[in-house]
Amino acid sequence: MRNPQRTEKIAFFFLLLSTLLIVVPVGLVVVIIIQKGLPAINWQFLSDMPRQGMRAGGIFPAIIGTLYLVSGAIVFALPIGLLAAIYLSEYARDNLLTRIIKLAIINLAGVPSVVYGLFGLALFVVFFKFGVSILSGSLTLGIMILPIIITSSREALESVPQTFREVSLSLGASKWQTIRYIVLPNAIPGILTGTILGLGRAAGETAPILFTVAAFYLPRLPGSIFDQVMALPYHLYVISTQVPNVDEKTRYGTAFVLLALVLTMNLAAIVIRYRFRKKKKW
Amino acid sequence: MGKITTKNLNLWYGAFQAIKNINSTFAEKNITAIIGPSGCGKSTLLRVFNRMNDLIDGVRMTGEVLFDKENILEEAADLVVLRKKIGMVFQRPNPFPLSVYENIVFGQRIHADINKRSVLDEIVENSLKSVLLWDELKDKLKQSALRLSLEQKQRLCIARLIAVKPDVLLMDEPCSTLDPQATARVEELMRELKNNYTIIIVTHNMQQAARVSDDTGFMLLGELIEFGKTERLFTTPQDKRTEDYITGRYG
After folding, report:
1. CA atoms within 13 A on the CB side of B113
2. How many Å apart are CA B34 and CA B211, to the nearest integer?
3. Mean pLDDT lowest for which of A25-34, A132-141, A157-166, A264-273?
4. Interface test with B, best of A91, A94, A169, A170 (most B CBs within 10 A)
5. Has residue B106 been placed in a domain?
6. How big is the A-B interface in CB pairs under 8 Å?
7. Which of A144, B56, B81, B135 has the most CB atoms lying inside 10 A of its own CB?
8. What's the gap in Å between the CA of A75 and the closest CA on chain B?
């Protein structure tokens, strides 16, 4: 006999189980990294150069390198991504060209990151002769996060009510004034959220910086944007697989710093979004 | 001579004709009401006067609309200048998510580049006074406009418009979200405003048209069926369809 109550209980159990299965790995990753990595964290680890072939000392240049790369990526990707998003959301008509552009953005988001790495190597390192440098790496990361920034900025712009635009135009504002004074200010929290998520992504990726900027071992700070730098994700890869006899503590400590950096960014994005939702009343 | 005159005005949304050959004259410093059932084209007609229909893809117009003797349907018409002179109050009160003060000075910020505090303060005070909000809001100028009551919001929207110093106020069902008392007060305000402005109001509410307007036009399926003095139109309609509508046979 069919028993709808029992069927429902079984269904409910599997739904809950699947949901919990999503949380478990996240929780485990965080717990393990904290447990094994936290003991390594001290001021010297964060502020010192690596020593003895990266078996001792700190990870300072890798932290700085990652910060440089992330900043460089954003300097490049935010203006272009935002302007493109404004064009797509406010000016573009729904025609073939627009649809091709939108399709291209979706596809850009799906390109594997190692392909970006090779692309950056070919275009920036070799063709533009920027060499293996912060500039090449930042541009490569920038292109990688462009789709995130464009997509989230477009959503933010499109979520600004149409009536605001109508009122502004009806008061004699030009289209650009309407965008500048009404649409953009109300879209900023959304744009910011997307930008920070993009930053988090850029900070954590290894493949795009592999051929374009990352130094295997460079215990000094970069002098210019044409220098190589160490970067956290690549450093982690190196001390985990390429250098024998590195302390487990050092490896997990590095992972901890990287994870903390990325999670802090994501958390900031969540906080901004939450505060904005609470404030907005239209 | 009217403030706004339409000559053989037609409008299409794609293949659908929303306005059919309308000839009418809107008198200066008068309130003209446009009534008619939903979908008759009355809002569309209103949005011809400040060219807001241009925002919709596939809109086409023929004929002439003369505003102070100039045809505003010309390609060369300057929409920024036109919309400064012909302002609009919308159905739903729609203040910007800014302070009361910033809502009112929005027009100055974009048009005049005036940043002198004293000048702006004066504009805010005069605009709020002209919509009878000054006493209620003079201590709340920094407060977000989104926290006002519906009636206050709608008055604020009118104040924001008045700050731009228009000649004509287009009102698209301005009281449809307000309760009867608030509606009565906004109607009182409209009578006040007509001393200085030409007002064209679109309304669903026949009583409202009868109460506030000097002239009334009745529209049906894109045509202007009848146009004349409000009192005359409501007491002795000349067209059977007008009579049917105002006696509540449809609409």
Report:
1. 0
2. 13
3. A264-273
4. A170
5. yes
6. 61
7. A144
8. 29
Name which residue leads in pLDDT, B247 or A127.
Answer: A127
Contacts of B92 in chain A (CB under 8 A): 163
Q: pLDDT for B66-108, tens place per residue?
A: 998 889 998 888 899 999 999 999 999 999 999 999 999 998 8
Which of B49, B52, B80, B89 is the best residue to mutate to test the A interface, defined by the most A CB atoms within 10 Å of its own CB? B80
Question: Cα angle at A144 between A139 and A150, to 5 degrees?
Answer: 105
Contact B90/A at CB under 8 A: yes
What is the rounded average pLDDT for all residues in chain B?
Answer: 91
CATH architecture of structural domain A68-279: Orthogonal Bundle (1.10)
Pairing of strands B16-26, B223-229: unpaired
Domain count, chain B: 1
Range of the domain at B63: 4-246
Per-residue confidence (pLDDT) for residue B138, from 0 to 100: 87
Q: How far is A148 from chain B (nearest CA, A)?
A: 27
Is B150 part of any domain? yes
**Per-residue pLDDT tens digits for A248-282:** 888 999 999 999 999 998 898 888 888 877 776 55
- Please state whether beta strands B86-89 and B168-172 pair in parallel, antiparallel, or not at all (unpaired): parallel
Judged by CB atoms closer than 8 Å, whether chains meet at A171 and B90 is answered as: no
pLDDT score, position A176:
93
> Which CATH number covers residue B131?
3.40.50.300
User: Scanning the structure block, which residue is given the tokens 């990726």?
Assistant: A205
Q: How far is A180 from chain B (nearest CA, A)?
A: 10
- Which residue, chain included where needed, has tokens 């894109």? B222
Residue B129 lies in a domain: yes
Q: What percent of chain B has pLDDT over 70?
A: 98
Rounded distance, CA B129 to CA B146, Å? Answer: 20
Using 50, 70 and 90 to split pLDDT, how confident is the model at A158?
A: very high
Q: Are A170 and B81 in contact (CB under 8 A)?
A: no
Instruction: Look up residue B132 and give its DSSP letter.
Output: T
Domain ranges for chain A: 68-279
Instruction: Tell me the chain A residues in contact with residue B161 when contact means C-beta distances shorter than 8 Å.
Output: 171
Closest B-chain CA to A186: B97
Closest chain B C-alpha to A265 CA, distance in angstroms:
28
| Residue at B251 is within a domain | no
Q: Which of A163, A170, A282 sits opposite B50 (nearest CB)?
A: A170
